[in-house]
Amino acid sequence: MAVIDGAFRPVVMPVSAALAPYVSGLMAVEVDRVPPIEQRVAPHESVVLSVQLGRGAHCVEQKGALGENTRVTGIRRRVGSFVPAGDCVTLFALLTPLGAVTLLDSQPLSGAPRIRARVDELLDRRLTRALESQIALADSLPEKLRALGAWLEQRASTPREVSAVAMRTARAAMRMLAEPLSPIDELADDELLSRRQLERDFAHWLGTSPHHLANVARVQAVSRLACSGESMASAASGAGFADQSHMSRVVRELTGLTPKRFVRARTTPMSTAFREATRGGTVYL
Questions:
Q1: Which of 66, 67, 85, 241 lies 20 to 30 A from 219 at CA?
Q2: How confident is the model over 13-45, as pLDDT tens digits?
Q3: How many CB atoms lie within 10 A of CB 160?
Q4: Radius of gyration of the chain from Cα atoms?
């Protein structure tokens, strides 16, 4: 695996203060030509915007027509697996719920494919063509990542009409991520909604449910606490679980792993980079 791992070269970039409410992490990876290798991804709190290009002279056309290489993946229900494309560069922006609503022009995620939905089918294709061109023209992987960050920051700073209902949903979701112990009924009451309406709004605008988002936030909190040196018992308490048994049950439901195996997932360049980008989260297993 050492040779294969060496074929993955990731870069993590700090998120600017202006972008922080909308994006929780920025990273990119360059991949050599590699044999098919299954990768596994755990549920985490971000809607993932990705841009994948080739590495040759015609780097855009290697992976798809200009404008079709920018994709978005919703909040996962359980661990998923895939075989990554080789001979490519892939850039990732981890969008917060506010970022998903704002940067994607409050397009509902309920009808989009959960995995790698084409952004040009959600937004004007001229936007994704311009983004992919800017990334392709950048010389190095860090410069390509800076181009993605600049594109996102420009979108975040440009006034646009965003659905008030979508923003209300994002506001409740952001609070849930900050306070995963907040009762769903309380979040709904604070937004002057019924619980059922809040659940419908989450499904429509974010493609998930309040209950699932809260569990994902708690499971990732376990990872962050354990990575900071906390014991499993302390991590369970800090993440808001009633006890270790409760934590184990939820971690197994979402990942299929025990908490110890989850937080000690195999160290690879991708898993390490995502830990850095998510401040200790476990994304790649």
A1: 85
A2: 999 999 999 999 999 999 888 777 788 999 999
A3: 10
A4: 19
Distances in whole angstroms, Cα of residue 16 to Cα of each of 19, 131, 146, 230:
5, 19, 11, 29
* Helix (H), strand (E) at residue 91: strand 88-95
Which residues have C-beta within 8 Å of that of residue 81, sequence separation ≥ 6?
38, 39, 40, 41
- Residue 239 CA to residue 221 CA, distance in Å, equals 6
Q: Which helix (H) or strand (E) holds 95?
A: strand 88-95
Which pLDDT does position 57 carry in this prediction?
A: 61
Which amino acid is present at 186? E
Sign, CA torsion 119/109/27/52: negative
Amino acid at 103: L
Which are the contacts of 7, defined by CB distance < 8 A and separation ≥ 6?
31, 32, 33, 34, 86
Query: CB–CB of 43/76 below 8 Å?
Result: yes
DSSP single-letter state for residue 183: -
pLDDT tens string 149-205 = 999 999 999 988 899 999 999 999 999 999 988 899 999 999 999 999 999 999 999
- 3-class SS at 226? helix
Phi, psi (rounded to 5 degrees) for 108: -60, 140
The Cα–Cα gap between 217 and 215 comes to: 5
How far apart, in whole angstroms, are the C-alpha atoms of residue 233 and residue 228?
14
